[in-house]
Specification:
By secondary structure, the chain is mainly beta. It is built from two helices and eleven strands, in the order E-E-E-E-E-E-H-E-E-E-E-E-H. Helices cover about 10% and strands about 35% of the residues. The strands form two sheets. The chain has a seven-stranded mixed sheet with strand order 2-3-11-8-7-1-4. The chain is globular and about 50 Å long.
Length: about 190
């Protein structure tokens, strides 16, 4: 039987020994949610141990510079429902050829995986997924010729009423090298 019981289960240590380093790497992976099948850990539903895409489909990359890519979440608190999380991913588009414009114009119901700059020795928490269960959709999509050098600024978020049950999903297929190879391997069209 499913339960909504929640509560703290371990100490929280926020001191000099656990201070994080912010930021994500300059490449993220994005795919159409309906074409992706995650394998969830049997004891922790926020952990993904495997990832597959449908035949003839693939993951794509978004490459930025410095801090151009951003990801995160906001908790959605309700008095009469379990708390959920609105996932968030943002980036800027610099490409304006016809096929690039159409690609971004058609962007919806996607999943994004990012690699954090800070990497634990066991890679736990290094690769994080956003929009895995319900997808990310454009919430802001703007371009002004005289702002941010004419780039297109996009933010993707969970739709209202379709927020995620976890703040993010951790993708961990054994270790860092195996997990990274999994994502890179899915960049090619699957046979």
């Amino acid at each position: 039987m499913a339960t909504c019981d929640k509560g703290i289960v371990k100490n929280i240590v926020s001191d000099c020994s656990t201070k994080p380093v912010g930021g994500i790497e300059i490449t993220a992976w994005i795919g159409n949610r309906g074409e992706i099948t995650p394998t969830y850990d049997v004891t922790n539903p926020s952990k993904i141990t495997g990832l597959a895409v449908e035949s003839t489909k693939q993951l794509f990359t978004i490459t930025g510079v410095k801090k151009l890519l951003n990801a995160g979440f906001d908790r959605v608190v309700a008095e009469d429902r379990p708390d959920t999380f609105t996932h968030y991913f943002s980036f800027q588009g610099f490409e304006f050829k016809v096929e690039n414009v159409e690609n971004l114009d058609n962007l919806e119901d996607v999943v994004v995986f990012v690699e954090m700059k800070e990497k634990a020795d066991d890679a736990d928490g290094t690769f994080r997924g956003f929009g895995v269960k319900y997808g990310l959709y454009p919430s802001t999509d703007t371009m002004r010729a005289n702002d941010i050098d004419g780039a297109r600024s996009l933010e993707l978020t969970s739709l209202d009423g379709q927020s995620e049950p976890h703040s993010n999903y951790t993708l961990l297929a054994t270790d860092y090298a195996t997990t990274k190879a999994l994502l890179v391997g899915l960049e090619s069209v699957q046979a």
